[in-house]
Amino acid sequence: MTDEHCPKMFPTTQLEEADGDGHNSSANATMGEIISRRFSRRNFLQGSLAVSAIAATVSPLALMTAEKARAAGGSAFSFTEVEAGVDANHHVAEGYDADVLLRWGDPLFADAPEFDPTNQTAEAQARQFGYNNDYVGFIPLDGAADHGLLVVNHEYTNPHLMFPGLVTLVDGKVEQGPLSKDQVDVEMAAHGGTIVEIRRVDGKWQVVRDGANNRRITVNTEMQITGPAAGHDRLKTAADATGTQVIGTLNNCAGGVTPWGTYIMAEENFHGYFMGELPADHPEAVNYERYGVPEGSYEWGRFYDRFDVSKEPNEPNRFGWVVEVDAMDPTSTPKKRTALGRTKHEGAESIVAKNGKVVFYLGDDERFDYVYKFVTDGTYNPDDRAANMDLLDAGTLYVAKFEEDGTMEWLPLVHGQGPLTEANGFASQADVLIETRRAGDVLGATKMDRPEDVEPNGVNGKVYVMLTNNTKRKADQVNAANPRAENAFGHIIEISEAEGDFAATSGTWEVLLKCGDPSVAEVGATFSTETTKNGWFGMPDNCAVDSAGRLWVSTDGNSNKATGRTDGLWAVDTEGDARATSKLFFRVPVGAEMCGPLFTPDDETAFVAVQHPADGGEDWDGHGRPSYYEDLSTRWPDFKDDMPVRPSVLAITKVGGGKIAV
Ligand code: FEO
Ligand code: CA
Ligand code: CA
C-alpha cells in the first residue's frame, strides 16, 4: 500500500500522505548529520527538465550482455530501459512479454463462477482470485521451474473501484456511500491469499484450474495461534475461550516462502479494520495506541462485532502476526506464529544460516518503526520436511539498532533480559510479543523511515532493507541510518552480518542508495551517474534477489505529481563500479503500485503484481479527475467498457526464452 495507513478509503488517493507522525512516541535518541534542505515542487520541476536534457540516452554499457558489462565494470543487467512516464497501460522492456496470468475475479477452481462485476457475491469471490495482489511466491512442484504453486497475497480492497453505484458526485466532489453487508462480505472474501497451480507450456504460463492444491484463504478461514503467546488471556475472546483459534487473516502485504516450502503471509495494517472505542483506562489502551488501533477505515464492525473494539476488545491482539500456510495441503490450518512478534509486518523473507538455523527478516511498516529478524532455535532439515514444520514456534526475535559509525546490533526481545521485565509491563514472553513495538522502544531500537521488504541475498551474503519514505522526520531526528529530513523518496540500506553469518547478533551497514531525482541537488539522491532519467525512482517498497544475486526493486508512491512516473520494477546494481546504477525494466498503469516481484528459480520468469490500478489519476492529463468505478482512469487490463479495472499478476518472460536481463 501507499503508506502505513494502507486502507485508502475513497476519496483519498496515493498522492496524499496520511496525517500523523506514526505511532512511536518513545524517546529513543535521534542524532547525526543534518540534511535539512527542503525538497520543493518548484525545484523538482526544474530538475525534471534538467535531467531530461542531460540523461536522455541509455548507457552504452546497458546494451552489452550482462557478463561483458560486468567485466567492463558496468551493469550486471542487460536490457534496454523502458521510458519512465504515466499512461493507462503497463510497459515492459523491449524483447520481453508481460502476459496477464491472473486477474481479480478469475476463477481458481474448475467449478468456480466466471467474474461478473455487476453480480458480485462473497461465495463467488471466495472461489476466485482476490483483490489487490501483493506478495507473489512460487513453490516448485517436483523440483520443476516450469510447474509449481503460485502463492499470492490479497492485501486490501478499494470499494470505489470495485462496486458500481457506490460513488456520487456532489458539487463536483466525490462521495462514497456506506457499503451494504453483501459488499462487506465480498470485501472479506477478496482479502487473504490464493494458492494456485501454474504450469509453463510452450513458453507461456497457464493456470491449472483443477490443481489439487488450489485454495483461497480469506478473512473467514479458520487459523491456529501458535508459539509463546498462544493461549494467553490477552488473546481470548467471546468466540475463542482458548486464545488459540482465530478466524481469518487480513491486510496480507508481502510474505515469503520458507526453505521447506510453506507460504508466509504477513499481516500488515490490521489497525484499519477495527472501529469503536475503548475506555482510556482499559488495560489494552496503551498497547492499541502504539499500533493506531482502532483506525476505523473499514466498515466491517458495523456487521461483525469482532471488528468493534468496544464489543470485542481483545480481537486486535489476534492480528499483526506472521501466518504460515502449508500450501501442499489444502486442508491444513494456517498458523499465526507469535514467536515472530506482532507488528505491521511488511513481509518475512528467510534464509538458512551457516549453522542451519533459519533467519527471517522483518520490516514493521510505519514511520519511525523498526527492523527485526527472527532466528529459529532449531535447525533446518533439508531431508525431512515434516521436521521443519514447527520451526517458527521457537527462536529469538531481535530488533535492529543502527549505530552512527556504521556498525549495528541485533537486540534480543527476550523476557527477563535487560528492560523487558514486569517493572516495564512485560510479565511474560507473551507480553513481549503482543507488544513487540513497545519492547523495541524500551530496548532503544533505531527509528526507521518505514521499513518495507527486508531481503537476504544468499549470493553476496548481504541483506537489503527498503525504507520507503518518511516525510515526518524532522531535521533534528535524522540519524546515520535515516539521513534525510522530510524523506519523501526513501532509501535502501545494505547490511553485512558479522562474519557473513545471517544468524549473527551484530554487523555493519551502509546506505546503498538514497532515492529520488538525482538531478535535483536538494533531494540528495545517490544513484550512480550511469543512471538515466528513466532509471531513478522514489519510494522503494518490495524487492527480489534473483538466483544470480541481482537486486530488483519495486516501488509504491511514484506518480505524475510526485516523480513524473508511475511505479515500476527497477534493476539495481550492488557490485563494483556499477553499484547504485538503476534501470527501469517494467512500469505499471496509472494509479497502481508495483508488488511482487518474484523470479522463478531458473530466472526465466519474473512474476509481478499490479496493485490498485486506477486508484488515482487526477494528476495525469489523460484523466485529470477523480477515478472511481464509473469513471476509471484506466480499465486495465481488459480495456472493455463493461469491465472494471482489475488488479492482476503478470508473468514476464523473454521473447524466445532465456534468462531475464542476461
Ligand atoms: Fe502494504 Fe508496507 O506495504
Ligand atoms: Ca506498499
Ligand atoms: Ca509493500
Automatic annotation (TrEMBL):
Residues 1-28 are annotated as: Disordered. InterPro entries: PhoX, TAT_signal. SUPFAM superfamilies: NHL repeat. Transmembrane segments: none annotated. PROSITE patterns: TAT (PS51318). It comes from the Bacteria. PANTHER family: DUF839 DOMAIN-CONTAINING PROTEIN, SLR8030 PROTEIN. This is dTDP-glucose 4,6-dehydratase. It comes from Pseudorhizobium pelagicum.
